[in-house]
UniProtKB/TrEMBL annotation:
GO terms for biological process, alphabetical: mannose metabolic process; N-glycan processing
Protein name per Swiss-Prot or TrEMBL: Alpha-mannosidase
Top EC class for this record: hydrolase
Residues in Glycoside hydrolase family 38 central domain copies: 503-590
Pfam families cross-referenced by the UniProt entry: Alpha-mann_mid, Glyco_hydro_38C, Glyco_hydro_38N
Cross-referenced Gene3D superfamilies: Glycoside hydrolase 38, N terminal domain (3.20.110.10), Glycoside hydrolase family 38, central domain (1.20.1270.50), Golgi alpha-mannosidase II (2.60.40.1180), Golgi alpha-mannosidase II, domain 4 (2.70.98.30)
Pathway, per record: Protein modification; protein glycosylation
Location(s), subcellular: Golgi apparatus membrane
UniProt source species: Cyprinus carpio carpio
Length: 1032
């Protein structure tokens, strides 16, 4: 049996620090005295470890093995520890040398508390989604031909003074993976769509097309010749082809974290800048299953002016249609002025396919989808087929279509009408282009040549539409001034989506949780690698001599990881809504990239901590530093390098595996550090001799954590572990192993309870498993979930909605509160959460579906894996004056920090055993912590314009978090303060110098001229800003 050792680390340095502060010393093993016996030690865990190492080697060759690896890793991670303490060292001395003592009370600038404490006042013309949910009855009456809507009528003379302007926008929705993998779709469909596009758009300059997924576009670009590329450039210059959004994918908006949302947007926009010089103006999101204001904010920060959304609850659409509020300025709940506004168009009907985009009657609109002409592969389910347009029928056909356009137009405030023309993977064959474009052109020609119809119809791009819309309302082309014809301002989000009846799309908040966790693991490692890599490049430049550091190879690994992570943000990837083998393809990419970014981390850390840079050498087969997670210690003393990837100094737990209980941990100056040695358990029965009864396992007052299991068939096995650094209770049920762990350490991790649930429902039929946490908080029907880890959205449990409608996405946290306390559950993976009763939280851990849900996938979800879900439960006394009705809420500083610690653990690397140990030194690029509310989202090396490798610049992305001061700031052990949003980077840097810094838009598309001192960065609360940075 192997033994794990836990000890506290005092991050001696600040901001992405590589701390060479801990020497791990192993006493020589005395085999004869080892009570556990060597044979068992080298037993299961060692075999498992060897198996994982072996599987990792095989990974590149054999993707099918990925499934086994995942389960093995989880088994390894989830082994349980018992408590023995060894040895009792002189910790107070050793500990304190590395960090100055933290103040008992966290110093927060009083001005920084005003943002969250302000009183809420609703804008006079504002639409607040929480109010809309209160108002709607969700009764779903039959609306006639527009089933979810109402009859629309109009007068023939309504357009006599101002003609109806119709923009028919051809589009093809290309999922980067769903029923097929990304590569298979590309091979079978997407490349043909793009190839035909070049030919068919050139045939007639009136034809238009939009494209949004750069993952596909860039793959195609790599495969076409320079002549075709020139043709594409001409199409873009002439305005026939528009890139909409321009992200790597069309991301899911529920499960995605804003780190990854930004990263995939930057990857897409950087690709466009390098290859096409294109700056997207308009967002296009027709298929994500519900919409988040976070994406609206990110698009606005990236410099986009307009956006379109589609999948919104049918009752909301109907209400907005009746109020003519389907077009609005989307404003962030927390925004005190109009700076976050972005013009948004919400599509009114059921779907983005042709039957649901020309007007309210799908039976009619389907007749204008000319891919469904008789004799083709698809037809109209309403049983009236399209007719090819001829001189004989053009009058009747044009009038029929115009009737739909006019009715649709009645749902909007202007005479400008949008009619998308496309569907999934459309325009694959040349004949389909001819069918759509030729027949529509005949209809347009007829309409436009008959002035008595008062219509001007044409193909357009999505920005053509918005440009005409802005013109008709007196708005300027890009700005947000409302103009003569006021559009409403809307705040809030569009979860939880229902497409019909009580079919709420909340299952995907949890589906395939294993991969949702894997996504966060890659995010955290990618960020850690990006930051270290950028610092290493700057450090090497300063060093000024040729060396062995693999700058270009590492950049390639980072690029591939960015793209694999970006791909997984797609709305059929992180959502868990793809076919089984597509899921395996995504998982393989994520896993592969986790291994690769670890290589970037160890090779960069090696450079940074090396005392004599001349001795650096790069040997990927035998690196000097090795990730501890896949390493077993043996019999000699080992050195450990610990990297703190967060931007504040911290004290945190580190876990390593050793082969003997006789160990000591020394810090950099040779003092013994307190450590707790515990057994590792391979299964429940193995630990049977050590089973204890639970006796007040958690000392957290007025909270109990209970498991909610549908039918526990057996009494659980309970194990209690006590120790000086942590104590835990592990309860094993049929489907779940539930661990509650308390840390007895000063600081953030000592202030909350760690929860780990290992869930296994592989043998079940149509099963969902949930964790329910009950408290005596009087939270009534109100609770709070985050959106994309960026902001908090207040929620209300509504009795008028079915159970499944009351679940919301939980990307980073959910909380409950009453006047005296707040209970927050922080999560390390996206899951669905609810509060079905006052004081209660429910989180779905996993779900298993034996049948299809009739949304096109054609299968259930049966590929469940053993999944470890991790959480932190934080109870805080509350003295906040936050109004109960306010549509915004903010976590405390402690809550923000606890989330950071959970999702960005310290990264430990062992120095490999070799004859000559290199001489290492701590590396601290910053002289102090970043402000408590300032988060370094990323420090991302920018690709060189000429070569494939990195340029000398990096994108510095900062986020100033909104936080609520109405909570205790005592004993957080944090060494940061707040600074009214100001960071003086030059003063913070230790060895590196700021060569240049330029404010740019979020994805670096636009450069801003700023009169302000470029050295001093200043952010408003909630703001995310990007700077183009050069360090040397
Ligand atoms: Zn899709």
């Amino acid at each position: 049996m192997k033994l794990s050792r836990q000890f506290t680390v005092f991050g001696s340095a600040i901001f992405c620090v590589v701390v060479f502060s801990l020497y791990l010393m192993l006493d020589h093993i005395d085999h004869s005295k080892n009570p556990n016996g060597e044979r068992i030690q080298k037993g299961q865990l060692g075999i498992l470890q060897d198996k994982i190492d072996h599987l990792e080697r095989l990974l590149a060759e054999n993707n099918e093995i990925i499934g086994n690896i995942r389960d093995s890793v989880i088994n390894l991670r989830e082994t349980v520890k018992d408590g023995k303490m060894f040895p009792e060292g002189n910790m107070s001395q050793g500990d304190l040398e590395l960090l100055p003592p933290a103040p008992a009370l966290l110093p927060i600038h009083s001005e920084d508390c005003q943002f969250a404490a302000r009183t809420y006042s609703k804008a006079a013309d504002g639409v607040q989604m929480l109010d809309v949910y209160d108002l709607l009855s969700f009764d779903n009456p039959d609306g006639g031909v527009w089933k979810q809507g109402f009859d629309i009528s109009y007068q023939d003379n309504e357009w006599d003074n101002e003609p109806l302007q119709v923009f028919v926008v051809p589009h093809s929705h290309n999922d980067p993976g769903w029923l097929k993998t990304f590569d298979d779709y590309y091979r079978d469909q997407t490349q043909h769509i793009l190839n035909n596009m070049v030919v068919k758009l050139h045939e007639d300059s009136r034809r238009k097309m939009i494209w949004s997924e750069i993952s596909y576009f860039s793959k195609w670009w790599d495969n076409i010749d320079e002549q075709k590329r020139d043709a594409v450039r001409r199409l873009i210059e002439s305005g026939q082809l528009e890139v909409a959004t321009g992200g790597w994918v069309m991301p899911d908006e529920a499960n995605t974290h804003y780190f990854a949302l930004i990263d995939q947007l930057v990857e897409g926009h950087q690709w466009l800048e390098r290859n096409l010089g294109v700056k997207p103006k308009t967002g296009w999101a027709v298929d994500p299953f519900g919409h988040t204001p976070t994406q609206a904010y990110l698009l606005r920060q990236a410099g986009l002016s307009n956006m379109l959304i589609q999948r919104v609850h049918y009752s909301v659409k109907k209400h907005f249609a009746s109020q003519k509020t389907l077009e609005f300025f989307w404003r962030q709940n927390w925004d005190q002025d109009s700076s976050s506004d972005i013009l948004c168009h919400m599509m009114p009907f059921y779907s983005y396919d042709v039957p649901h985009t020309c007007g309210p009657d799908p039976k009619i609109c389907c007749q204008f989808d000319f891919k469904r002409l008789p004799g083709g592969r698809i037809s109209c389910p309403w049983r009236i087929p399209p007719q090819a347009i001829t001189d004989n029928n053009v009058q009747e056909r044009a009038q029929t279509l115009l009737d739909q356009y006019r009715k649709k137009s009645k749902l909007f405030r202007t005479n400008v009408l949008l009619a998308p023309l496309g569907d999934d993977f459309r325009y694959t064959e040349a004949v389909e282009w001819d069918q759509q474009f030729e027949n529509y052109q005949k209809l347009f020609d007829y309409m436009n040549s008959h002035p008595e119809l008062h219509v001007q119809a044409q193909f357009g791009t999505i920005s053509d539409y918005f440009e005409a819309l802005r013109k008709s309302t007196g708005m300027d082309p890009v700005g947000m001034n409302v103009g003569q014809l006021a559009l409403p301002v809307l705040s809030g989000d569009f979860f939880t989506y229902a497409d019909r009846d009580d079919h709420y799309w909340s299952g995907y908040f949890t589906s395939r949780p294993f991969y949702k966790r894997l996504d966060r693991v890659l995010e955290s490692h990618l960020r850690a690698a990006e930051v270290l890599y950028s610092l290493t490049l700057a450090n090497i430049q300063k060093y000024g001599q040729p060396n062995d550091y693999p700058a270009v190879d590492n950049y390639k690994l980072l690029t591939e990881a960015r793209r694999n992570l970006g791909l997984f943000q797609h709305h059929d990837a992180i959502t868990g809504t793809g076919k089984d083998w597509v899921v395996v393809d995504y998982g393989t990419r994520l896993f592969h990239s986790i291994l690769n970014v670890k290589r970037v981390i160890v090779s960069s850390a090696h450079w940074l901590v090396l005392k004599d840079k001349q001795t650096y050498y790069h040997d990927p087969s035998n690196p000097v530093l090795q990730m501890v997670s896949v390493h077993i210690f043996f019999t000699v003393p080992r050195l450990l390098v610990v990297y703190n990837p967060t931007e504040q100094a911290r004290m945190s737990m580190v876990t390593v595996y050793v082969t003997t209980p006789k160990v000591r941990v020394l810090n950099a100056v040779g003092h013994v550090v307190r450590a707790q040695v515990s057994a590792v358990w391979n299964d429940v029965s193995h630990a049977a001799a050590d089973v204890f009864q639970v006796r007040s396992a958690t000392s957290v007052h007025h909270i109990t954590a209970l498991l909610w299991i549908y039918s526990p068939s057996q009494p659980p096995v309970v194990r209690v572990t006590k120790g000086p650094l942590f104590s835990e209770v592990t309860t094993t049920f049929t489907h779940i192993t539930h661990t509650l762990r308390l840390y007895n350490i000063q600081g953030v991790e000592g202030q909350s309870v760690e929860i780990c649930n290992t869930v296994d429902i592989r043998g079940e039929t149509n099963h969902e498993i949930a964790m329910r946490i009950t408290s005596d908080l009087n939270s009534k029907d109100r609770f709070f979930t985050d959106l994309n880890g960026y902001q908090v959205q207040p929620r209300k449990t509504l009795a008028k909605l079915p159970l499944q409608a009351n679940f919301y996405p939980m990307t980073s946290m959910v909380y409950l509160q009453d006047s005296s306390a707040r209970l927050s559950l922080l999560t390390a993976q996206s899951l669905g959460a609810a509060s079905l009763k006052s004081g209660q939280l429910e989180v779905i851990m996993d779900r298993r579906l034996n049948q299809d849900d009739n949304r096109g996938l054609g299968q259930g979800v049966l590929d469940n894996k053993i999944t470890a879900n991790s959480f932190r439960l934080l109870l805080e006394k509350r003295s906040s004056a936050e109004e109960e009705s306010a549509p915004y809420s903010y976590p405390s500083i402690l809550s923000h920090m606890s989330y950071m610690y959970l999702n960005h653990p310290l990264i430990s690397m062992a120095v490999s055993q070799r004859s000559e140990s290199p001489s290492l030194t701590p590396y601290s690029p910053l002289s102090a912590s970043f402000p408590c509310d300032m988060h370094l989202v990323n420090l991302r090396a920018i690709q060189s314009k000429v070569r494939g490798g990195p340029s000398e610049q990096a994108a510095l992305i900062l986020h100033r978090k909104g936080f609520d001061c109405g909570f205790s700031n005592r004993n957080t052990a944090l060494l940061c303060t707040t600074t009214r949003g100001k960071v003086h980077l030059e003063k913070l840097l230790t060895d590196l110098k700021l060569k240049s810094i330029t404010p740019v838009s979020l994805s670096l598309m636009h450069t801003y001229n700023s009169d302000a001192d470029p050295q001093e960065i200043s952010l408003k609360p909630m703001e995310i800003r990007t700077y183009r940075l050069q360090l040397s």
